[in-house]
Request: fold
Amino acid sequence: MILLLVLVGLLGLAVGSFLNVVVWRVPRGESVVAPPSACPRCGHQIRARDNVPVVSWLLLRARCRDCGEPISSRYPLVEAVTGAGFVAVTWWAGFSWSLPALLYLVAISVALTLIDLDSQRLPDAIVLPSYVVVSLLLAVAAWSPGGSSDWGSLVRALVGGGAMFVVYFVLVLIYPGGMGFGDVKLAGVLGLYLAGAGWSALIVGWFAAFVLGGVFAVALLAVRRAGRKTRVPFGPWMLAGAWCGLVLGAPLADWYLSLL
Reply:
């Protein structure tokens, strides 16, 4: 298990490095493949030895090797958070066919949270392909090659994903200022995950998003960092709520039923 955690952590660091490119380029409509990463000031291409997650930033003392331009601490933080997220999810879920789907959720959670905070957008370039990717990964998890299949979880995921999409769509039509259509599209993806894990996860994750987002909005109002008409990105709270549902949904349901 320790070896698996180490390998997954290294994979997470590498994915985090790629997510830095995604977060910067996707909102601008740029390719994440070409051109290679370069210093925004002097234009020199980033050398391979200067592109090692976290380590290179430390060795370069947070400055470009060629011109000395400061390198934001956000880059190693994204890499470290993604790596830590990969390790935490692997430790929690264990080695199973559902792990790839969960690791993918970690990756898009980091990317979409940062993009939504930066630009209040949830790009179609990330969200829409996720419907296909997540559906395929959940199908593999339901099939569980070499083990017992659970096709009911895949059917439940598809039903739950569709239900969340429809409800969020209706909410946008009723109150357009509350959220955007990017949130609606993301809701369908998160519904796949939550319902696939179980109806209790879907209910908790759905409810937690509004609770967390509401508490944050009230806190901003209390410290006068926002007004009543200030738009607060809801995507990060949808993602946080989804993780609450996945991790706490079943335990909370068991606790509630024990009280009856």
